[in-house]
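Appendix B, record 7
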Amino acid sequence: MGNRMTDTLPFPRTVCSDALTEVLHAGAQRLRAEAVQIEAEQWIAARADQVDGQGRRQVVCNGY
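Structure tokens (predicted):
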């Protein structure tokens, strides 16, 4: 387990220097988070019919 095949590289973070860029960046982050949340809800809803022998759903959202 000591031999690693890949290295982790830091993700470059650009420094925002003006208010408009900060607002756009925050808005983009919010839109991405909402899109992921909606996609997860749709994925779970599409599998609502998958139940075990006792009728309990097998695909559920466990946490946020």
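Remarks on this record: The CA atoms of residues 26 and 41 lie 23 Å apart. Residues 19-45 form the longest helix (27 residues).
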